[in-house]
Write a structure and sequence with these properties.
The protein has helices spanning 34-44, 61-65, 85-92, 118-128, 183-187, 197-207, 227-239; strands at residues 3-7, 14-15, 19-23, 28-29, 32-33, 49-54, 74-79, 104-109, 112-114, 132-138, 146-147, 160-161, 173-182, 212-216, 221-223, 254-256, 261-262, 267-269, 272-274, 279-280, 285-287, 290-291, 296-297, 302-304, 307-308, 313-314, 319-321, 324-325, 330-331, 336-337, 342-343, 348-349. By secondary structure, the chain is an alpha/beta fold. It has 2 domains: 3-223, Spore Coat Polysaccharide Biosynthesis Protein SpsA, Chain A (Alpha-Beta Complex), CATH 3.90.550; 253-349, Hexapeptide repeat proteins (UDP N-Acetylglucosamine Acyltransferase, domain 1). The structure holds guanosine-5'-diphosphate-alpha-D-mannose and magnesium ion. Guanosine-5'-diphosphate-alpha-D-mannose (GDD) binds next to strand 6, helix 3 and strand 13.
Length: 360
């Protein structure tokens, strides 16, 4: 086992409105572009060659990761003119693979943070002799995912992407976005048109009697599809709950990048990341939050479970909980922002404009 495909294209790769011009895989999590964690974990599992299948804002990947030698990997990039869907993207990079027809190829969704034992998935694939093996995880609400029921040997019996009706919710096991494909199965995906591996390839393979094997692994798993999930993932990387060899520095309560400035009595906890050139003022308290490059937290502000975009400024004594502040936005002093609020990039919120506390 030496090679993998990483899917980093499609329509959902923008983290709106936080970073208008940055695809999600390149937004820093625990101080480095998120994709670095996936690449480093694959490398640690023995993968040597990775093809990035990209479409939207593809031009940002190669200047950063180059040929992959900094990570000890051989990286290649393939850009779709129009998004080809997950299956189309996999098929579109087949010519770059070195594996023979019966050899296994790893495939990863590019927006997943997980502690998956990649070698165990590959071993399961070899032991079961499957055509495709899938990492499965259990979630409370499976509706936003691909449902994957299995029999008592772990063999997949159906694949139901994003079920619409209660009757379709037949299991809490979902597709966790990591697969091993037999190389020849990749070559059998149709070319030249969009194909969804979830809606087309997997159901067709099952209908034709192919062997799809599930491996339920209840290790750390998070889809970083929302900014809130992204903040959670970044904090979990810093805290060491989500294992990654690419976290710069030791795991602990906080990660402060070298050029950041933090006042001596400011408190940083819960996996907070202070990005390059960011500033945290006196008496500020920042918990479980990600401050991107150049962000400024003024004295006395309290920031919890929030994402503060590059160059954004949070005014003195403002209190943020579960907020997403776009790049360059300015939240004036004495505001109170609560769960789910998103401040657009470069917007300005004057001093004392928003609060939730009662009159007194
Ligand atoms: N190159 C390329 N081209 N990549 C794509 C395209 C495309 O047209 N469409 C999607 N991708 C990439 C995305 O960048 C992402 O890394 C991955 O494929 C999955 O796409 P999402 O858009 O994030 O899908 P999802 O989160 O709704 O559902 C998928 O992931 C779930 C787990 O998080 C499915 O695979 C579900 O079955 C699964 O449960
Ligand atoms: Mg996703």
């Amino acid at each position: 086992m030496t090679e993998a495909i990483l899917l980093v294209g499609g329509k959902g790769t923008r983290l709106r409105p936080l970073t208008v011009n940055t695809p999600k895989p390149m937004v820093p999590a625990a101080g480095v572009p998120f994709l670095t964690h996936q690449l480093a974990r694959a490398k640690a599992a023995g993968v040597e060659h990775i093809v990035l299948a990209t479409s939207y804002l593809a031009e940002v990947f190669e200047p950063h990761f180059g040929d992959g030698s900094d990570l000890g990997l051989s990286l290649e990039y393939v850009t779709e003119e129009e998004p080809l869907g997950t299956g189309g993207a996999i098929r579109n990079v087949a010519s770059r693979l070195h594996s023979g027809p019966d050899e296994p190829v790893l495939i990863f969704n590019g927006d997943i943070l997980t502690g998956l034992d990649i070698r165990a998935l590959v071993a399961t694939h070899a032991d079961s002799g499957a055509d495709v093996s899938l990492h499965l995880t259990r979630v409370e609400d499976p509706r936003a995912f691909g449902l994957v029921p299995t029999d008592d040997t772990g063999r997949v019996t159906a694949f139901l992407e994003k079920p619409q009706t209660p009757e379709e919710i037949v299991t809490d096991q979902i597709n966790a976005g990591a697969y091993v494909f037999r190389r020849s199965v990749i070559d059998s995906i149709p070319t030249g048109r969009p194909v969804s591996v979830e809606r087309e390839t997997f159901p067709e393979l099952l209908a034709s009697g192919a062997h799809l094997q599930g491996m339920v692994d209840s290790t750390y798993w998070l889809d970083l599809g929302t900014p809130q999930a992204f903040v959670r993932g970044s904090a979990d990387l810093v805290l060491g709950r989500a294992p990654s060899p690419a976290v710069p520095g030791r795991c602990g309560d906080r990660l402060v990048l070298p050029s950041a400035r933090v006042a001596p009595d400011a408190k940083l906890t819960g996996g907070t990341v202070v990005g390059a050139g960011a500033t945290v003022g006196e008496g500020a308290r920042v918990t479980g939050s990600t401050l991107l490059a150049g962000a400024v937290i003024e004295p006395g502000a309290v920031v919890t479970d929030s994402l503060v975009g590059a160059g954004a400024r949070i005014g003195a004594r403002s209190v943020l909980t579960g907020a997403v502040i776009g790049d360059g936005a300015h939240v004036g002093p004495d505001n109170e922002l609560r769960d789910g609020i998103r401040i657009w990039c470069d917007a300005t919120l004057p001093a004392g404009t928003v609060r939730f506390s009662s009159d007194q």
